[in-house]
Amino acid sequence: MTLKGYGGFVVRKITASLIIIFTMISTTFVLFRMMPGDPVKLMFNDPRLGKQDIELMYERFGLNGSLWEQFVAYIRQLLLHGDLGMSFVQLRPVMDVLASRIPQTLLLMLVAIILALLLGIWLGTMAGWRTGSKFDGAVITGALTTYAIPSFCMGIILLLVFAVYLRIFPVGGYSTPVSGLTGFAYFIDVARHLVLPSLSVALWYIGAYVLITRNSIIDVLDQDYITLARAKGLKESVVIRKHGLRNALLPVTTATGMYLAYALGGAVQAEVVFAWPGLGLLLYEAILSRDYPVLQGAFLVMAIVIIGANLVVDLVYGLLDPRIKVGGG
Amino acid sequence: MFKLLKGLQSVKELSKLIIAHKMGITGIVLFAIFGVIAIFAPYLRTVDPMRGGLPVNILQPPSSQFWLGTDNLARDVWSQIVYSTRISLTIGFVAAFVTVSIGTLLGLMAGYFRGKIEEVIMRIVEYFMMLPFLPLMLVSAAVLGQSIWNVVILIGILAWTGTARIIRSQVLSLRERAFVEASRSVGAGDRLLIFGEILPNVVPLIFAQGIVLCTWAIYAEATLAFLGLGDPAVMSWGKMLNLAYSSGYLTRAPWWVIPPIACIVLLILAFTFLGTAVSDIMKPGYREARGL
Asked: Which value does ipTM take for this structure?
């Protein structure tokens, strides 16, 4: 059966994504069953528990029967009920655990990426417009530096400077515990907690955006329409904004799409340093406590978002680029 | 063999250009300092970095006896820093070597043989690129268990895809060139064509990838160790930070925390600068613009 045109392209792409997702679910399932230690024995090492209670535990966590039976049960629960099993440690559904952590990570990453986008584009444009100047050299070195520093190192530096010595911002957490703050005061409190973790993530992205924007501005500068715009006697700032930047932003947009797709898994280091209760910290805690249903669930959610984003990009490109439509994926 | 030497000759030429590049020379100097520290570690007034000291010496700030102070088990921070340099550099180089080897081999195969082999290799590359990287590494480290070699293997398995892609696209254009065609027409076999004709021409590219992957491997090792997934028996910069973090002294003993951060950042910067210099130099027209 061969499907023609855009419809066939869409079907092929969706099928491919589904196959990847299924492969990933199966590999992670096997991977986590290989982890050392019997979790039920580890958790309920209580002599008062009877044999029946233990068996009930195995059943409740989906650990009874052969590996194949466990796998079939896992897939069925996932597809029919959107159920990812029970957390060994928190003793509640993995879905609930994940849902309680995703908003914090999204908040952190969105603030960081938006901040980086604004600053990075501005610095990158200025540097690219004056290639070879002192300013350009300083920006490039700065960008390479923040780009090279692992975000846990950046996090610790910011923590020591701004939270410990200067005491401007809190050392960690999402909000001040038992403060009883509500409304606007609570909002300010959360914002204050957000500053350092999002900055330690943002500095990496600023480096990335500066390098991307600068390169693409340099490419654009060679184009005839820039020479034309200058020849028309337009002010340099207008040339930059209307003719330069607008055309240089395509690679930046592509990069932003990728960064957003990877956002859920992108803040592990910063979340650990600042005890920010997001998905990254959850992943870290789950590794330490060998809570593999949560580990598996968190990993799946992160990967499915990436695969979905890639699919959307492919489909949009297919719609825009006639060659892909005809030639097939 | 002769041709491969010629490939290496181009690396020699490349290093001359790197030394002339401002960032390149900065990177080399930084790297040389770390190299000297790693090689002469036992002679730099160091003690066993893992052995605890006397209780009176717990959490001492820097002094003439302890150049960088002590940690919460009275261990000498200076010695830890010096010996960690060995670990970071070793892991960086070995992991980069493994990764580049895997990536180069698969990239050569995909680009040269095309067809089914290319299809399979590129599908695997695409699959790996769809996975969230750091989480995947953390999870695999937790499953594999913690040792230095597992860190190396992990980096090798997860990071070869970029190299394979770059090498493949280069090979795709090389295999159609006249000199490959000429060798083929006089009866050279696949092996001779791949290793005798094509490989020497991707040597500079492999060299550049090696630098990128060194940076990456050092970064990955530090991150894993900081998150407590490094080798428990070996001291490394990331592990020092992990110990300070998990014992609650991260904010109270700056002499313990700042040196490893400085080392991680400086070493990664050294490689980043070097990598930037190399990619600058490999841009077409670089030599011409400077009259070289």
From this structure: 0.87
